[in-house]
Design goal:
single chain; Rhopdopsin 7-helix transmembrane proteins; two-stranded antiparallel ribbon
Length: 345
């Protein structure tokens, strides 16, 4: 997302082009190439395994995992369309040797895929909040999840579209540097892609898990409730506390019982991994967006090119972390991954 630029005193977003001190020398180029190849391989292997596992294993086909597949698809596209060109630029010390049109396509894909990742996490929070807070209006059929996933991708395309519509074609553009040229768009994309959805997502997750804890506490209290204790000592026997059969309230119809059910045990198990996924995403991407918006809001602030490169790499590493998180924190994913790896031997 315009991730190879710093701000100069003239107010232009300047990248690590020729003559800057952030370029990679031969050792740095070799490290960038090796790290890039390893990162691309890890992202492709891990996220492909996630998609294949959910498609092949019925036990993993839960509403939450549909969004996880969409998140994995965004990471796969990042590894195929963005990371190779990013690594190419890093190997050449941040100097862009390809066409400006390809640079604009790279910036647009970078913005879109990063936005899609966080919008998918937001969509999970919305879906889980509806399932817990307003279960009467929740539909477990995949239509709702598919509509939410489609909306996340359409919104992501809308955020990135101005780059492809000529916004990045500024007068006096340096063809040796690939960056987002318009400072207003840098601020706009940062706010839309990160600083607005993140607080909303955290608030919804907090409300969801708070409601889930209350529901589980009420359910345990109901299951472990004790019958009234019989008074001790002399005296006539206490009357039977249970009402006669004709006075007992009728059992609710099956439809009402289904409406009161909020989240199945399997879905609750899938939800346990979400706080780790969200935490890893915020840990990896918050430094990048802080640096990114600082350059847009403060043209005179000197941002070291090495810092820009470091926070960009950290953000991209997140794409390789999610399959590891699923393996460590979700026993069903771990079992399916183990079976898939055994078949490949």
């Amino acid at each position: 997302m315009g991730n190879r630029s710093a701000a100069d005193a003239d107010g232009l977003l300047v990248g690590r082009g020729p003559g800057t001190d952030g370029g990679a020398g031969p050792p740095g180029a070799a490290a960038a190439l090796a790290g890039g190849v390893l990162l691309i391989g890890a992202v492709l292997a891990g996220n492909s395994l996630v998609c294949v596992s959910v498609a092949a294993e019925r036990a993993l086909q839960t509403p939450t995992n549909y969004f996880i597949v969409s998140l994995a698809a965004a990471d796969l596209l990042l590894a195929l369309l963005v990371l190779p060109l990013f690594v190419y630029s890093e190997v050449h010390g941040g100097v862009w040797l390809l066409s400006p049109g390809l640079c604009d396509a790279l910036m647009a894909m970078d913005v879109m895929l990063c936005t899609a990742s966080i919008f998918n996490l937001c969509a999970i929070s919305v879906d889980r909040f509806v399932a817990v807070a307003v279960p009467l209006h929740y539909n477990r059929q995949s239509r709702r999840q598919l509509l939410l996933i489609g909306a996340t991708w359409l919104l992501s395309v809308a955020v990135a579209a101005p780059v492809l519509c000529g916004l990045n074609d500024e007068p006096g553009r340096d063809p040796a540097v690939c960056r987002l040229e318009n400072r207003d768009y840098v601020v706009y994309s940062s706010v839309c892609s990160f600083f607005l959805p993140c607080p909303l997502m955290l608030l919804l997750y907090w409300a969801t898990f708070r409601g889930l804890r209350r529901w589980e506490a009420a359910r345990r209290a109901k299951l472990h409730g004790r019958a009234p204790r019989r008074p001790s000592g002399p005296g006539p026997p206490a009357p039977d506390a249970s009402p006669p059969p004709e006075a007992r309230p009728a059992a609710p119809p099956p439809q009402a019982r289904r409406r009161r059910a909020k989240i199945t045990g399997r879905e609750r198990k899938a939800m346990r991994v979400l706080p780790v996924v969200v935490g890893a995403f915020l840990l990896c991407w918050t430094p990048f967006f802080v640096v990114h918006i600082t350059r847009g809001l403060c043209p005179t602030c000197a941002v070291p090119p090495r810092l820009v490169s470091a926070v960009t790499w950290l953000g991209y590493v997140n794409s390789a972390l999610n399959p590891v998180i699923y393996t460590v924190f979700n026993s069903e994913f771990r079992s399916v991954f183990r079976k898939a790896l055994c078949r490949c031997r």
